[in-house]
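protien #1 (seq + structre)
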Amino acid sequence: MVRTLLAASVVYCYAHPLFDGLRPATLERPLQFFYAQVNDAAAQGRQLLTRFDDARMRAYAQTYMQRVDAQLKQAKTSGALASQ
C-alpha cells in the first residue's frame, strides 16, 4: 500500500507542468490527464468535507436551539404558575 502511494505520488509530481519539457511526448497527455484528475478529486474532497462540517454544525446548532427553546418554555410555564 505504501509503495503504491509512493508510486502514485511520484507519477503525480512528474505530471506537474514544471516538467513539461522533460517528459517523453507519448506520456504527455496521459500524465496531464492524471494530474488533472487528481486535482479534481482533491477539490471535490475539500467540498465534501466542507459540506459534512456544515451539516454537523447545523445539527449541533439545531439541537442546541431545541434545548434552549425547551428551557424557555419551561421557564415561562413555571413563571406563569408562580404568578397565580
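ok now protien #2
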Amino acid sequence: MVEFIECSSLSISYDATGKAAISLTVVKDDMTNLQDTYTDGTWGGVRFTVGVMGASQQAIMGSGGWAQWSLQLEGVGN
C-alpha cells in the first residue's frame, strides 16, 4: 500500500492565539481509509499536534484505483 502527502498542497497558517490551521492532500493507491491518522506530524520544521477537522476523498479517474484525500487539520505547534 502506497500513501504520501502531495508536498505542493501543504498549507500552514496561524491565528492570533497561535492555533495552526493546516491543509494538505494525501494520495493513496486504493480507496480504503488512510493508514496514518495525521494527528501528529512535523511540517516546515515544526512538530504539530492536531485534530482532523475535515476530510474528503476523491477517486483519481483513470489511475487504476488511486484516490486523493483533502484534509483540514487544526492544532498547535510544539
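The chain has one domain: 3-77.
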